[in-house]
Every structure is written in structure tokens, then in C-alpha cells.
Amino acid sequence: MFKLITSAVSDACSRWWGSANGADEEIISTVLIIAAMLSIFWLVWMLISKDTHPPLPPGPRSLPLVGNLLSLDPELHSYFASLAKTYGPISRLWLGKKLGILITSPALAREVLKLNDTTFANRDVPVAGVEAAYGGNDIVWSPYGDQWRMLRKIVVREMLSNQTLDSVYSLRRREIRNTVNYLYNRAGSPVNVGEQMFLTVLNVITGMLWGGTVKAEDRESLGAEFRQVINEMTGYLGMPNLSDFYPGLARFDLQGVQKNMKVLAKRFDGIFETMIAQRRKMSGDENKDFLQFLLQREDDKDSKTPFTMVHLKALLMDMVVGGTDTTSNTVEFALAEMMNQPEILKKAQQELETVVGKDNIVEESHINKLPYLYAIMKEVLRLHPTLPLLVPHCPSESCVIGGYMVPKGARVFINAWAIHRDPTIWENPSEFSPERFLVNEWDYSGNDFNYFPFGSGRRICAGTAMAERMFMLLLASLIHSFDWELAPGEKHDLSEKFGIVLKKKVALMAIPTPRFSSSTIIREIVNSNYYLIPNGPHLTMEGGGKDEVANYLHLLNQITD
Q1: Residue 323 CB contacts under 8 Å (≥ 6 apart), including other chains
Q2: What are the binding residues for heme?
Q3: How deeply is 127 buried, as exposed, middle or buried, from its count of CB atoms within 10 A (0-12, 13-18, 19+)?
Q4: Do 345 and 210 reside in the same domain of the chain?
Q5: Residue-range definition of the domain harbouring residue 444
Q6: I want to staple 213 with a disulfide (CB 3.0 to 4.6 A). Which of 78, 106, 157, 538 is the partner?
Q7: Does residue 73 belong to any structural domain of this protein?
Q8: Overall domain count for the chain
Q9: pLDDT one-digit tens code per residue, 3-51
Q10: Same domain for 419 and 540
Q11: Known binding site: residues?
């Protein structure tokens, strides 16, 4: 390069020399020296520039305009894992005009979520997220800043703190026992396990929020309807959408994602409006639930960061949509894995019999004495993480990860699913083996990047404590109260369906067989000093005595010994 430049300059100067008719030779020499120095400076600048601006990560060849969109597999988590085998632990994809960065190793996940936590604390909000979360004003999609800190403080320190969760234990207890009652009534018949788990969690969450639950007679119809709506919403949130990859085309909504999500969100907004209007009419001393608490926050106009009605509804949406599908899917996967390996199910049942006893129903006080059941929970979260790619992160400024440039505004996918199945970390990674968590006490606090099903850093899941309590009590109650077998014609199918929330591809249809007498259930309800009272559109728990309980045993009249 240097020789070419100096030669060209020399030739030009020679021609100029010939036409200059006796020009001073010293001028020509000076020109050559300056040209040479400029060439050297240019080469040095190129070398320095190359060092300070590392290349983008490697990745498959992309096409003009569409990038790699045409090669995407619907099962993104496994497709991204296959790319890592070819291009390494950090790679790139062009999603139209949007750059996607794929992270598939614990070391690089640590760089993103811990060493550069603040830089990656933002989200690349999809169009579906904007519609579902009232403009992206919820805890999931809010940009990192004062608003997000305010929302997270409300959720983590007040709504889902350990103290608050302890105070609503009777609600969890009631709804799980209602589910056990429902399953006793259908003993010997196939039930859709995921659907029933979904409705149980939905009843707990709506009971916490505004005291509303789905009544027993509406369980199948409304449960299926609610689940379908939420499945559609989470499906759109995980769907590749042209409006996200070509912002200029967003106004055309070519795939109809914005339109459809707006319709789904409006259905929930109608429920929220109804419940808010009811709470506005009540005195401050009645029904101290989460909605009442949030309305009081909304009335407080002196806060440095105002909590508005938009924030209130967005948090309700987070709780209902984010809290139901996730836990219910995990319980469904866990039961399916145990049914596929009956010796694991038997071992868990034996642990429960030892700790709880055959004539007792599981209480939350038993849970900490069940190490094998804890190991089952951790193993199912390893093999089938709730959010296989977490929620994509977005750097607020360009930075270097693993020696490669990650530009500002890129969409960063952290493949927890692939890391949890890495054979260099896990022995027999595709095998469901709870024993691995008895030998090594991994936790999901987000500090170990070999295992982080709830994420890590500032954006770690805010509902971890709630999810753990619901999963453990629900699964323990299911396997302590019943033996399980597949419905006739069903086969063990553990295949997954990708979405922002991971689901079973084939619903688990299973037959419950009671392990104990139904009189145990009735006695427990009588002794609990609570009974069920229909109250408008939902059931509520009221204190009562044993004499009054007899008047409500018709609610259990389908149970037979």
C-alpha cells in the first residue's frame, strides 16, 4: 500500500516536474516526504481503529434486506443452540434491519448480566409488548430508570415480599385444596393437567389482586378460555414480527400482531376497569387486597415518580399474564417427567409420606423438609426453563463482549436453555435426574451462570419467591394425594414448543387415582375453621365454626370414599 501510494505520488510529481520547466527539486522532495508521512499516519490510524473497534460476532451469511429471517426455525431456542456449535458461544443474526446477538456460554452470560449489568439493563420492546403492557409501562418492558425502579420496588418489596406471601398463605392453601377436591371428583377420568394447574394459579393470583376466582362449576369452560387468551398473548410476545425488524413498516402491521394483541389486551382491560370501579366504591377498611393497595398508591400525588393508572393496569397485566402460564407449565413438565420415570415419582411420594403422613394434607410448613422435591423443581427448571431465552436485553451503548462488538440497540438473546444442557457443565444433560441437585446445591439466585432459570442482574425475575411457593405446594399436593397414569391412547411426550414462555408441545392428559380416603379432605376442611361462601362472581374464604361447616358440605358432595 505504502509503495503504491508513494509511486503514484512520484509519477504525478514527475509529470508536474516536467511541465514546471525548471521547478525547484527541493519542493518536489518536500511533497514526497509529506505524502509518505501521510501514508504512514493513515496506516497507523487504520491499525488503531481496528483494535478499538472489534468486529461483530461471527454468524451465518445473510441476504440483502431480509438478513437471516428466512432461515429462522420456529423452535428458536434449539436453533440458536445449533448455531453456537458452528459459530461459537457468541454469534450474530441479522433480523431484517435489527441485529440479533446470541449468547450461549456461562462466561459470556456473566459478562452481559453482571460485568456490564447497567449497560444491558434495558429492553428492546416488541410491538406486542407495547400493546400488552399499556405502552410498555410495566416492570418487564420499562426502560431502566426511575420508573422501572419504582415499579420493581412496589412488586418486590410490597406485593411479593416474603411477609406478604406469608400473609396470603390461606389463599394458596384454599385454592390448591379446591383443586385436589376437583381432581378427587374426577378420579379415574382423564384431566388436562396443564389446564387445571393454570386455573389454580390464576385463582391464587386474582384472589391476591382483587379477591376474584373462577367458581367450581365454571372451572373447565372459563379455565380453557382464560388459558387460550394468555397463550395467544405470550405467543405473540415470542413471535418474530416484521414490525420489530423493519420499524418503517410497523404502521402497516403486516402480520396483524399489533391488531390481535390490542384485541386481547382490551379483554383484560375490561376486567381491570370493572374491578377498579368496584374498589372505588368500597370504603378503605374493606377487602385489603393488592388492588386496594395499588389504588392508594395511585391516589398519592406527592411521589417523586408518579404511579399512574397506566402503571397500575400494567402491573395487573404482569401479574395475571406473567404469573399464570409460567408456573402452570413448569408443574405440567415436572409431572410429565416423573410419570415418564415412575421411580422418581415413587421416591418423591415416599418422602412426602415420611414428612407429611398418609392421613394429612401437605402444608407449606412441610416444604422445607422435602429436599428431593426441591431437587425435582430445580431439575425441571434446568431442563425446561420457563423463559428459554430469558427476556431479550438491549445495550444502551456499544460495548465489547467476548472480544466482539455488540452495538447499541442490538437485541441480545441469552440462551439459558442451551447453557442448562451444555455437556461440558452437566453430566447427561438431556436426562431428567433430580439427584444431580442433591450432590451439588445449585441455586437460582442469579449468581451462578451455569444455572440461572430466573435470569440474573437488575432484571432478574421479580416473582421468583411466589413461583417457588406455588410450584412446591402445588406439585407436592398433586403427587401426595394421587397416583398418576396416562390416559388411554396417550404416549409419553416431553417435546417442547418455543415461545417467550416454554410450553409442552402436547398437553399432558393424565388420570388421577386417590391415594387416601376422601374423608381426609373433608376432615381437613372442617378442622381448618374455614368454609367456602359464594360471593358474586367469585368464592371467598370466611371464618366459620365446625357447626356451620355442615351447611356447606354440599360443596364436597361429589367426593366419595
Answers
A1: 201, 205, 463, 466, 467
A2: 461
A3: buried
A4: yes
A5: 130-516
A6: 538
A7: no
A8: 3
A9: 443 344 344 444 433 444 454 566 666 656 765 676 676 666 666 555 5
A10: no
A11: 461
